[in-house]
């Protein structure tokens, strides 16, 4: 059974940094795409970043390019999201997700989801 467990959320002031972690277990993730999504109150869940488990490919939403960095540690089966220069509009619940079908930025392509971790950025 696939499990994705996020951690690292919290309250931070604007301009600050946080690093989110997603511990993945339950299978081998070779060939998967791992993604980070976020959902703010009253808004749709949106794509933030993705990384291919078996190669160097990454992708970012325009709103986080240059501020967020996605990475992975295959040995630890963990995906990270380093978030710098945080803004109040980054406030949301952040979700880790896994897509076994290939490279995608669409939430409906992701089969597995974590429970989410809250990130709050104060102004």
Question: Mean of the pLDDT scores?
Answer: 95
Helix and strand element order? EEEEEEEEEEE
End-to-end C-alpha gap: 40 Å
Percentage of residues in strands: over 45%
Shape designation: globular
| Poorly predicted ranges | none
Please give the number of β-strands: 11
Helix-residue proportion: under 10%
Quickly count the helices.
0
Describe the biggest sheet? 7 strands, mixed
Structural class: mainly beta
Radius of gyration: 13 Å
Question: Secondary-structure blueprint of this entry?
Answer:
Elements: E1 3-7, E2 10-13, E3 18-25, E4 33-39, E5 46-52, E6 58-60, E7 68-73, E8 78-83, E9 92-99, E10 112-113, E11 117-122
Parallel strand pairs: 2-11
Antiparallel strand pairs: 1-3, 3-8, 4-5, 4-9, 5-6, 7-8, 9-10, 9-11
What does this structure look like?
The protein has strands spanning 3-7, 10-13, 18-25, 33-39, 46-52, 58-60, 68-73, 78-83, 92-99, 112-113, 117-122. With 123 residues, it is mainly β. The strands form two sheets. Strands 2, 4, 5, 6, 9, 10 and 11 form a seven-stranded mixed β-sheet that branches. The chain has a four-stranded antiparallel β-sheet with strand order 1-3-8-7, with no helix packed on it. Strand 7 (68-73) and strand 8 (78-83) form a beta hairpin. The mean pLDDT is 95.
